[in-house]
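Dear all,

This email documents one entry for the complex benchmark we are building for the journal club exercise. For each entry we list the sequence lines for every component of the assembly. Then comes the predicted three-dimensional structure of the complex as a token string, followed by one or two observations. Please use this as the template for your own entries, and keep the labels exactly as they appear.
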Amino acid sequence: MTVAEVPPAPATAPAPVPVPSLAVRARDAITCEWTKFSSVRSTFWTLLVAVVTPVGFSAIVAVALANQPARAAPVDPLLPGFASLEYAVLAVSVLGVLGFGTEYSTGLIRTTFAAMPRRRVVLAAKAAVLGAVTLVAGELVAFVSFFLAQAVLSGHHLGVSLSTPGVAGAVAAEGILLFVVAMLGLALGAIIRHTAGGIAAVVGLIFLPAILGLLPAPWGGRVGRFTLLEAAHQVTALHPAVNLFSPALALLVLLAWPAAALGLAALLITRRDA
Amino acid sequence: MIEVDRLTKRFGPVTAVDELSFTVRPGHVTGFLGPNGAGKTTTMRLILGLDAPTGGTARVNKKRYPELIRPLHQVGTLLDATALHGGRTARAHVVSIAQSNGIGRSRVTEVLRLTGLEAVARRRVAGFSLGMKQRLGIAVALLGDPAVLMFDEPVNGLDAEGIAWIRQFFKALAADGRTVLVSSHLMSEMSQVADHLIVIGRGRLLADVPTATLIESSTRSDVLVRSPRASELAGLLAARGATVTREDDGGLAVTGLDAPAIGDLAASHGIAVHALIPRSASLEEAYLDLTGESVEYRAPSQDGVPGR
């Protein structure tokens, strides 16, 4: 490395910087967070896992369903898509945690907050970038999985078409699940301020409450309907279960999880020392 | 300009920064000195609004830092050079921070050139040496061409060439009329570059003086006198108003009279003088005198103090 020269003489008095509009500052924050998001390999690999595994798995699940020797109950033709999404849920929730987790773990968060002292702007910008990407990825996964699974099932006269009432909405809702868990992960990363701790928390919050659904009736349904995965299942099922919330209410439950977590993160982020 | 007014920060029972007040003026390199654990990093975090003060205020260019819009245009900082995402390239790191304050790509290229990182700009920072990371941190601090710059222990990890470069660099920044605050726990680093010193110990202000004044004011500036008739000479010196301390080896440590006056006095009384040595304390010694007490009190209970 060579020794660089001394900086050139700058303007003596700092030129009055015009105060940029809110829209310009929002754009600054979002481009900054987009650069951070897209300039590390973990983003690419996590998204690849999140997209490829569920698409592949849904085809495998569809084949398994189609080849069941005797069917006691009618098969939900949307099940392959939802069942295979769990792997993507894991990957994307971790991706969410990394948004703040790595910044806190490395100490980079101080550079970030020194550059953008309005911390909620940072939270909002990260949410915007991650939200947009995971929503697109989620819908991509949902619809590609759907068409692939139906291609398999239709050969056995088990498939449904997108024009069947309720199907398009259920598939679209499936795509929202990745957005939901990404936001939950992002918020938990900001709350816990540690990558490993954030991952443990998000996995725990998503998967552990599923146990509640196994409580004896009627408590399994009464309590279970508030859990994230049961709500997601209800929203994405073609034939929703009767002992749970209606799909519309379940969608609210699904969105309430990340909303509450982001709200808590927004509250804590300005109150704690970085 | 940085103005700190009765700034206080407590972490539970520990007071990391205690009613600290000082002003850092433009046009100087100001050394921010204190032993490890004195509260230097905490003070810098408070100035940047990263930590909320328990009491008092810190202002940069007359404003609290969190009120600044696009702050990098006014304040550049390097707190921890190793606080990086190892998987990102140097350029991507600098670009992302530049974007947050509306700073263009050409300025990114410029600061990478100024810090000698052009050649490695597209390499992932995980492979960087500490010295390279320090340069990267300095590049980020310079991004907005700010009038105020703060560096926390910037010399750590630099080789001799890097240290020479950084000293020259700080002086040039100050000569431009910028406010430059540089922290260190080593006086030897600061004596070469800082013309003003703020010394703290256990979170309290110990000195806020020009570097030269600190040396002059040191109590250890004295004259060592050796003589076969030391006791007699000591009496004569004391009679002239000098303060004489007898050292273990029989030498006399004299303050209040300079070497020529002592020599003349001895000669006029026919007393032989075998040694007459003016001893001016080095800056390092002056610093140790100042902070000695605050270090001694640093009992094990202070190990938990965050920052340095």
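Observations: The longest strand of chain B covers residues 14-24. The radius of gyration of chain B is 24 Å.
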